[in-house]
Amino acid sequence: MTSASAAPVGGYLTTREIAERLGGTPQHVRQLIKSGRLQAIDIAKGRGRPRFRIAQAALAEFLRDAAVNYPSEEVA
Q1: What does residue 57 show for φ and ψ, rounded to 5 degrees?
Q2: I want to staple 40 with a disulfide (CB 3.0 to 4.6 A). Which of 33, 36, 46, 47 is the partner?
């Protein structure tokens, strides 16, 4: 079990919480992290498998970068 001091305070989400917001799975979120598309921190401190936490600002940046911008249609 991770001590409270090792976990980030406020504004951080788990891979499950991010998955719920994106409509995907925690596995997909971990793939996004490993590919570098979504920034995260690992609070596992090198013990066992990673335990990622994602800042809300990192999620906002990911969504902004992933947004599809359609060209505006000119009205004739």
Answers
A1: -65, -35
A2: 33
